[in-house]
Amino acid sequence: MALHASGEDYLEAILVLHKKMGMVRSVDVARHMEVTKPSVCHAVATLREGGFLTMDSDYFLHLTDVGREVAEQIYEKHRFFTDRLIEAGVDPEAAERDACRMEHVISDESFQRLKAVSEQKS
Questions:
Q1: Is residue 73 packed enough to be buried (19+ CB in 10 Å), middle (13-18) or exposed (0-12)?
Q2: Rounded to an integer, what distance in angstroms lies between the CA atom of residue 30 and that of residue 38?
Q3: Over its length of 122 residues, how does the chain's per-residue pLDDT go in tens digits?
Q4: For residue 108, is it within any domain?
Q5: What is the pTM of this model?
Q6: 11 within a domain of the structure (yes/no)
């Protein structure tokens, strides 16, 4: 199943919240992403069908191995672009918003090359 940017955003949010809080429910995702609970429920159903996450009997969300891999990749891109934009003098809030868009459109090859060049300069 191919993921759209919004699905990637949900996986990334679940990953971030899990790192921060340990256990994550749909309401936590809704608050974090500033979306409605029905929107999260629809996304969760789609991501469950795609094999990206599961929900236990207490309604906690858990990323599958595939879901975690996608979320980690998106989160890595997000942090990379946010940091580079802030280093370039972009306002942190604008950097976060722009990084969120950039993380979805860049190919993996281009990202890996940018990352390698950035690491060489460090």
A1: middle
A2: 9
A3: 678 889 999 999 999 999 999 999 999 999 999 999 999 999 999 999 999 999 999 999 999 999 999 999 999 999 999 999 999 999 999 999 999 999 999 999 999 999 999 888 86
A4: no
A5: 0.90
A6: yes
57 falls within a domain: yes
Provide the pLDDT for residue 42: 95
Indicate which CATH number applies to the domain containing 17.
Answer: 1.10.10.10
3-class DSSP state of 107? coil
Six-digit token string for 47: 């991501």
- In which residue are the tokens 């868009």 written? 101
Comparing C-alpha atoms, which of 29, 31, 39 is closest to residue 61?
29
Any domain includes 97: no
- Is residue 54 a contact partner of residue 48, using CB atoms and an 8 Å limit? yes
The number of folded domains in the chain is 1
- Whole domain around residue 35: which residue ranges? 5-64
Q: In the block, which residue shows the tokens 């790192």?
A: 19
